[in-house]
Design a protein that fits this description.
Blueprint: H1 10-32, E1 74-86, E2 89-101, E3 106-116, E4 122-132, E5 138-151, E6 158-169, E7 173-182, E8 190-201
């Protein structure tokens, strides 16, 4: 009877052990490798926050608007010659006055007059106020005044009230009329006097 040789020898066991060792090493190497980290998005960039500018110096107060020159107030004067009526007689007269034109055409003024050519002679003082209407070139006016007559020849002085109205051309020439009423008189207590005067405005 013939004998068949058995495959189980020492070389077979060595080969099997080497194969198992190689598989174990491969498995260990694969488990020890960590997965590569996923790429991360770059952080979002925000615009820098701008600090508010420091407060500047306080703005200088704007100057108050200036009023037109004609509203600031100005002096003006006038002079006139003509005739007047007093004590039942007609007199020649000369008058001069000065005033101060204020806001809205209101003008306080005073006038000094002298009546001559008959007896008694008369000096007249008239403080008053006049309103010039706001119309260019031709400026109508109305006014009122108190009158004191200084009477000569030893006669008593007299007092009265009066008014005036008219218009001025270019602040130089004035055409008007005045009215006077004397207090405490018995006759010829009222007088109307036409006036043409030349003036000067400063």
């Amino acid at each position: 009877m013939s004998m068949v040789a058995s495959p189980r020898g020492p070389s077979c066991w060595v080969a099997v052990a080497a194969l198992l060792f190689a598989i174990a090493r491969a498995a260990a190497a694969q488990s020890s490798e960590s997965p590569a980290p996923a790429p991360q998005a770059p952080p979002a960039e925000f615009p820098p926050v701008m600090a508010p500018p420091p407060p500047g110096p306080a703005a200088a107060a704007a100057p108050a608007p200036q009023e037109p020159a004609q509203r600031k107030g100005r002096l003006y004067s006038w002079a006139s010659v003509g005739t007047t009526f007093a004590y039942g007689q007609t007199y020649g007269s000369a008058n001069a006055g000065v005033g101060y034109l204020m806001l809205h055409g209101i003008a306080p003024n005073v006038e000094l007059g002298y009546a001559f050519g008959n007896n008694p002679t008369l000096w007249t003082l008239r403080p008053g106020v006049t309103w010039y209407m706001p119309i260019p070139v031709v400026r109508p006016y109305v006014g009122t005044y108190y009158t004191h007559w200084f009477v000569g020849s030893g006669l008593p002085d007299q007092d009265g009230i009066g008014g005036r109205a008219g218009f001025s051309l270019g602040r130089v020439v004035t055409f008007g009329v005045s009215y006077d009423h004397a207090f405490g008189c018995n006759q010829n207590c009222d007088a109307w006097t036409p006036q043409i005067s030349a003036g000067l405005s400063l």
